[in-house]
Amino acid sequence: MENWEKQLKNDVNRSLPSMIDTRVEETLKRLPGKKPKRRFFYGLTAAAAALILTFGLSFFSPTFANSLKDIPVIGSAIEFVGDIGMKKGKEKGLTTVMGEQVEIDGQLITFTETLYDGGEIHIGYLMQAPEKAQNDHFMNNLELFIDGKPIGGYGMGGRESEIEKGMYAGTISVSVRDDIPDSFVLGIRPREGKAWSVELPVERKGNHESYLVQKVEQQKDLTILYDQITFFPTSTEIALRLLIDEKAFHSNKYMMLDYQVIDDKGRVLQPFSGGGGGGGPVDGKVLQSFKQYYEPLEEQPKSLTIKPYLIDMNEAAPELERRQWQGEKMTLSQGEIGHLTILEVTEEDGVTTITYQVEGEDLYSQSTAIWLEDSAGTRYHFDQPAVRVDGTVNQYQVSFAEVPSFEELYIVTVAMSPPEFLEELEVTIELEE
After folding, report:
1. Which of 68, 84, 272, 404 could form a disulfide with 108 if both were Cys (CB 3.0 to 4.6 A apart)?
2. What is the pLDDT of residues 359-413, one digit of tens each?
3. What is the rounded distance in angstroms from the CA atom of residue 110 to the CA atom of residue 112?
4. Which strands sit side by side in the sheet containing 330-333, from one edge to the other?
5. Which of 206, 273, 265 is CA-nearest to residue 238?
6. Distant-in-sequence, close-in-space partners of 283: CB < 8 Å, separation ≥ 6
7. How far apart are CA 322 and CA 333, in angstroms?
8. 2-203 homologous superfamily
9. Number of helices and strands (H, E) in the chain?
10. What is the spatial distance between Cα 212 and Cα 24, in angstroms, rounded to a whole number?
11. What are phi and psi of 8, to 5 degrees?
């Protein structure tokens, strides 16, 4: 009995990876050669396996720490590393700008802005730390407060990237289960030591549209209750509940459950994060509530199709498709799931951008499974997740700050199995004005 109670408690509060990123990350781990540089990009999906990051702190002399405070703030962290939803919120003027600073063992953290439109709370920060281990991070084991009161159930994730030597930009995203005010002060401090704390003003900005769904789809041991869809300026939120047979719950049968969301134009929405939790078994069933977040849409679609599927994390070592770029359109197989067609490779201001078309069973997951190599097999990974080209259904772009010379530029992808869709649980939701 204590085991499921502990698991449910962890599901509410722990940080977990996005399904898509987990799948690609695990695929890349099984490849021979150099492993990809890990990004601090983990979401809140309680159906995923936990990505456990061990954070530490670097120690500098007091003289050096004081010198860090004299380095000027260079701008918005969201502009550097925010996802497409955060960046749209920034463009629409929905951020609350600030310059709060805190020093953590010689690392100077400057909080540049907060962003809240009714969905997740986003925080941008810059970190000055000339010597920083890959997993060094101040986010480990934090306590959060709203107007001085501890937050009950919440999930937290983030992304961080080095933007120049000794300077990092990052974002923190917080999903709170309870209702919160439109304007408040968000307090952050470590659970242990209490050596530092910061208070950040947060203000809800922007309009949204919500639609009650109230659709129920079920199979033998799992029922999904689709409750509500909300279109925020920075995200598309889908609220749903899972009713799982106790036996299936304890066996983790649906631990790797995720959702592909497609609009009326056939576009697969980019997943951001998700999370939730619930209580214990009642009459042999476990009920859990979740909120899933996807890319925002400029125009409200006439319908959304939600296709639940299970991710196979036990696939054998995948085969690679590796071809040299010759300046002409070429197609790379991704196995049973589909293929990529490279349309063009361009370079501007030191940034190389690849435009390509995706065909297959899981367009966004396929779009992220691409990287570059030189003739020696050294890997180069994109700086931001793949972005769909405006006005298209299945064309994407990724950009690289570091690439081999065009003479030895190889484009690489990987064979993948199609998702195991749970067709009985699929639903198309019509959205009326």
Report:
1. 68
2. 999 999 999 999 999 999 999 998 888 999 999 999 999 999 889 988 899 999 9
3. 6
4. 330-333, 338-348, 351-360, 395-400, 387-388
5. 273
6. none
7. 9
8. bacillus anthracis domain (2.60.40.1630)
9. 7, 27
10. 33
11. -65, -40
- How does pLDDT run across 90-138, given as a tens digit for each residue? 999 999 999 899 988 778 999 999 999 999 999 999 988 877 655 667 7
E strands present in 105-221: 107-116, 121-128, 142-146, 149-150, 154-164, 167-176, 183-190, 198-203, 209-219
Looking only at the bridges linking them, the beta strands covering 395-400 and 351-360 are: antiparallel
Please count the residues of the chain. 433
Per-residue exposure over 274-313, b if at least 16 CB sit within 10 Å of its own CB, e if not = bbbbbeebeeeebebbbbbbbbbeeeebeebbbbbbbbee
* C-alpha–C-alpha distance, residues 293 and 275, integer Å: 9
* Domain 320-414, CATH number (from 2.60.40, 3.40.50, 2.60.120, 1.10.357): 2.60.40
- Whole-angstrom Cα distance, residue 239 to residue 15? 19
In the chain, where the domains are located: 2-203, 209-313+420-430, 320-414
Q: Look-up: residue for tokens 């809240």?
A: 116
> Could you give the CA distance from residue 128 to residue 14 in angstroms, rounded to a whole number?
27
This prediction's pTM: 0.81
Q: Which CATH number fits domain 209-313+420-430: 3.10.310.10, 2.60.40.1640, 2.60.120.20, 1.25.40.10?
A: 2.60.40.1640
Task: Show the CA angle centred on residue 324, arms to residues 348 and 333, nearest 5°.
Answer: 105
Closest CA to 100 of 81, 80, 125: 125
Q: What pairs with residue 236 in β-bridges?
A: 231, 294
Q: Which of 381, 386, 385, 371 has the alpha carbon at shortest distance from 402?
A: 381
